[in-house]
Design a protein that fits this description.
single chain, mainly alpha, Rhopdopsin 7-helix transmembrane proteins
């Protein structure tokens, strides 16, 4: 049955990813010789920083939640569904990218890992903005792809020369996407069900509160198997899944 396959295949994808990443983690690598992430050494998340191949294990492995969501999106985005498959695959790529990029970041706490982590978040944020903009003013798939590539290349370069702006820029992307979605609903230019977007936003807000508490060590147990930032990974992956549900909720019979 298709629905069963949508859940089995992502789970297998996560298992295969876990095996590959576990093999990678068995390598003897000294991350100390790599350029450290800008949060190091005083502004890292709560979990204890180790010296092995995976420096923050809980924060690292929790990113597989994004891999599952990305695989689910990729395999459930059939041609007969409202969200175009090309757009769905971009969204899936962004989610898997977040999972693997953030995995590498927390495993290494390197600047390269930081770039991969944040860049993958930009991939998602830029998609949200452009997909809303394309529904306000229709554009071809080619124009969408070109715009998506140009914006992300620019953000990727900026992330190298001005990494301190990364969180502000991501916040601007999310806020811009939400504003455009609000305009679409106000103008009645969309039949997407807002309840999905509200749910995604609600989960994200809860996750962000937990993220803030963990980053500032306000609720912090460094050696615990329950890490606030890991919870943030799982909740934001859920939020991305709900966002996908929002994009697939369009009632095509009501479109003019």
């Amino acid at each position: 049955m298709p629905c069963t396959r949508w859940f089995i295949i992502p789970t297998l994808a996560v298992l295969l990813s876990a095996i590959a990443l576990a093999a990678f983690s068995a390598l003897s690598i000294d991350w100390a010789v790599w350029r450290p992430a800008t949060c190091m050494p005083t502004a890292s998340f709560c979990e204890t920083i180790g010296d092995g191949a995976i420096r923050q294990p809980i924060n690292t492995w929790s990113n597989l939640a994004f891999v599952w969501v990305g695989a689910f999106i990729a395999f459930s985005a059939t041609p007969d569904r409202p969200l175009r498959r090309s757009h769905a695959l971009i969204l899936a790529f962004a989610c898997v990218g977040i999972g693997l990029g953030s995995w590498f970041y927390h495993a290494t706490l390197s600047f390269v890992g930081q770039w991969l982590d944040v860049m993958s978040m930009y991939l998602l944020g830029v998609f949200m903005v452009l997909y809303a903009a394309a529904r306000l003013n229709p554009m071809s798939e080619r124009s969408f792809a070109v715009g998506y590539a140009i914006i992300n290349v620019a953000l990727g370069m900026l992330l190298i020369v001005w990494p301190e702006a990364r969180r502000y820029l991501f916040g601007i992307l999310i806020a811009s996407a939400l504003i455009l979605e609000a305009i679409l609903h106000r103008r009645k230019q969309t039949t997407l069900q807002a309840k999905w977007l509200i749910a995604a936003l609600g989960v994200y807000v809860v996750a962000q509160v937990i993220w803030t508490l963990d980053l500032n060590h306000l609720v912090c147990y460094p050696t615990s198997v329950l890490q606030g930032h890991a919870v943030w990974h799982v909740l934001t992956a859920l939020s991305a899944g709900l966002l996908y549900g929002y994009y697939q909720s369009e009632d095509q019979s009501r479109l003019a």
